[in-house]
Structure formats: structure tokens, C-alpha cells
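hey so u asked for the seq, here:
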Amino acid sequence: MELTRFVFWTAMEILGLAFLGLLSAKAVSGLRSSGAEGARDQLKWVRGPLYAAILALVVQGARTVGTAIAAENYAHTSRQNLARFQLPKAYENALRAVELRPDEIRYWHVLADAKFAQKQYSSLVADQPVLLALGRGELQEEDAYSCATAYYFLGQYDKVIPLTQEMIRENRVYAAAYVLQGYTFLAQKRFSEAERTFLEVLQMFPTMRVAVEGLAHAHFLEGDRAAALSVLAQTSKFSFAPEARQRFEALKALYAQ
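ran it, C-alpha cells below
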């Protein structure tokens, strides 16, 4: 859908540029003077600079459109590289897109995806000031989650929670933010807060496997094996994929030891 919109609006820009160029050239060529011969000669000299100015504007517009097309092509190729696990190429193409159009936040998103795939977490969070500037002082949900996840893998847990809390305030049903926050609390050994977070998301999405595992593990790490086993036993009331069932059985065996 995003590519379709880009193609449509780029086509409109090209058509508009061509139309304005032709209209301007026609207007200049239609300049007439009913005065003396000298006035007509002066008008001839004026037309030359006007034609040159129109040409310069058209060339500049064409370069701008060409840069936009090139940046979109690099971004599209980067996404394809990621899908094929060609990670170095994905990063290279995403970086090229950003270099061509640093004012377009969607290309920074493509670059963030490429950096995340290569585990360049420090580099990803270093782009946060740019994302804030392009977002008019606020991180978009996608950017906030990427940065929060990067901070989690960097072990900077104190920077994760403010981001997840803000995401949850803005979107009460953003399940991924709850899960990330819950596991961050686990990493900080704040077990009761982790339990509350996982319970909140499970009330909305009771078949979210990672939240079930997180809640069970929070009880287990707190030393309450019975509560951990109870969480896993309650999954029988819901429909889970076979892989999830196998995982729950493995956790039951672990907690029962």
C-alpha cells in the first residue's frame, strides 16, 4: 500500500512538473509588445532569461523527483534483502535511502529494521534524536518499540520502562509493549510488577503464549512453584497451537522438579 501511494504521488508530481513547464514556456512565448521596435527587441532579450529560469526550475524538479524515486527503490530493495536474510545488503540499501532522503522518516524505519536484524542496537538508539525531530518531538509507536527493544537487549532496563509505559498510555491494547515491559521487570527482578503486567495483557489476549510463559516464570522466579504450575494448568481452558502446548508441558516438567 505504501509503495502504491508513493508511485501515485510521484506520477502526479511528474505530470504536474511537465504541465507547469509547458504552461510557463507557452506563456513566455506568447509575450508580445505593441510598442516601438526597440521595445520589441528588449522583449526578445527578456525571453531568453525567462526560458533559462524555467529550464532550471524543471531540471531542479526533475532531480528532486529522481532522488525520491532512487530512495524508494533502495528502501524497497532493503526490505527484499531482509526477507531473504541478506542482512549486509539490507543495511547498505537502507542507509543509501536515508542518505538520499534524510527528511523522510519511513526510510529511517527501514534502516532501523536493518540495524535490528544485525543486532546494531547501540546504533539504533543513537538515531533516537533524529526520530524525535522528524516526529515533531514525539516518537512514533514503531520507533518507540524499536528503541525500547534495543535498550532491553543492551541491558539498559531503566530506559525501557518509560518508553513502554508511554506506549501503553497511548494505546491500551498494544500487546507487544506489555510483553516487553513484563520481561523487563523480570530482568530487574521486580516480580510483582511483572506479574501485574502479564495479567493485564492476558486479560485482553488470553492466548498470548509469551505472556503466559512470562507470568508463569515470574511466579517461579519469585519462588512460588504452585502458582507457576497453576498458570500453565489454566491454559487448558483456551485454544493454543500444538507448539505452544509442547512448550507449556516442558515448563511444567521444569517447574515440577
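The radius of gyration is 29 Å. The chain is about 80% helix and 0% strand.
lmk if thats what u needed
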